[in-house]
Amino acid sequence: MAKLPLVAIVGRPNVGKSTLFNRLVGKRLALVDDRPGVTRDRREGDANLLGLDFRVIDTAGFEEDDPETLPGRMRAQTQAAVIQADVALFLIDSRAGVTPLDEEIARWLRSGDTPVILLANKAEGRAGESGVLEAFGLGFGDPVPFSAEHGEGMADLFEALLPHIDRPDDGSEEQEEEEPAEDGPLKLAIVGRPNAGKSTLVNRMLGEERMITGPEAGITRDSISIDWEWQGRPVRLIDTAGLRRKAKVEDKLERLSAADTRHSIDFAEVVVLLLDATRGLEAQDLRIADQVLQEGRALVIALNKWDVADNPPALFQGVRAALDEGLAQVKGLPLLTVSAFTGRGIDQLIDVAFQTRDAWSRRVSTGQLNRWFERAIEQNPPPAPGGKRIKLRYLTQARTRPPSFVLFGTRVDQLPESYRRYLVNGIRRDLGFGAVPVRLTVRAPRNPFDR
């Protein structure tokens, strides 16, 4: 498939960059709030504007600060996005007019080689007319009056983008359609408490400073999806905001970030729960793990900062025992040790993630399943509550991802939870599902005389 052109959105804080990003991708992917500086890392998404396909990058607000500060590190991410883009959309707030920071950004953009389209945002009505006129002085030709909030000016933006984005001809489109479809990328989400090292781990995997990192807790706000390749196999990495205990979350923006992380878990295939080895396993880690399993996602646990951990053997055994006790429904979850700082253990982590996805996607034939089922019942027959026998007839796999099974029989509504766990544990152990979440529902045949 042909690589899509890259379009970067730049501008000072709070001019509507994330609103424009959401408008172009057709979804509310980027967090939007009235306060400035919500976006920190650069987020990418596939956009379509009146039939024009491209990849759009939402960037942090451009601020003049020391490179070592958080705003300075955010600016470095914005600069990297513009350098790699085919064209930059420079947003100003037409209602506020051209500010000194707008002029500073314009000077920086003029010094580079990336073509620039000037968008005068918030131009709906007459309140933005003076700002549009001021924008002529920035030196990028005619500004495009636009409203990201209301979708006004989309046709003008299309016309401005067209010279910078090559549209594939019919032949290339047909060629793309004829290519055989490959297995989709491994959708791998990295989750955990704040400051566990999630963004540092993603940067180490990618081999570049793609995500903003630092000693401050809670730097990452949006869930950022990045396409990557590991040993020739496609991976979609998802870096997420740290999850704190709900009772500690009071800020609206942190609630939005937490909701974005939960949304990413829903759409992941494998979730890596990253623990801080210097702090061990905490109650919040178990809550996050339980949430992942409740959503039916495959789960891998990774102990980060292993290069600076105290008494590693005892720490590993203690975490292993605590996981098996706290997550008794899926004993034996993969537990690995990594160092995002040195890169130790990352190849093993990705390899285990692929193996875990294979188990999560596994389907067992009905014949194999019921041969196992007959042996399981023979070794441990179901109980007879009240002296009345529960008759289990057969078992079938209804779906995969997560593996889900339906058990048919009579009086199955009285089947004890302990016996269901016996069956689920046996399915995991004997049929190759490992420690992925397995769902089992019971169903009795309908009684024709029951009204």
Automatic annotation (TrEMBL):
Residues 5-169, 186-361 form the EngA-type G domain. Residues 171-182 have a biased composition (Acidic residues). PROSITE patterns: G_ENGA. One of its GO terms (molecular function) is GTP binding. Keywords: GTP-binding, Nucleotide-binding, Repeat, Ribosome biogenesis. GTP 1 binds at residues 11-18, 58-62, 121-124. It comes from the Bacteria. GO terms for biological process: ribosome biogenesis. Residues 165-184 are annotated as: Disordered. SUPFAM superfamilies: P-loop containing nucleoside triphosphate hydrolases (SSF52540). The keyword DNA-binding does not apply. The keyword Nucleotide-binding applies. InterPro entries: G_ENGA, GTP-bd, GTPase_Der, KH_dom-like, KH_dom-like_a/b, P-loop_NTPase, Small_GTP-bd. It holds the Pfam family MMR_HSR1. GTP 2 binds at residues 192-199, 239-243, 304-307. Associates with the 50S ribosomal subunit. Belongs to the TRAFAC class TrmE-Era-EngA-EngB-Septin-like GTPase superfamily. EngA (Der) GTPase family. GTPase that plays an essential role in the late steps of ribosome biogenesis. This is GTPase Der. It comes from Sphingomonas oleivorans.
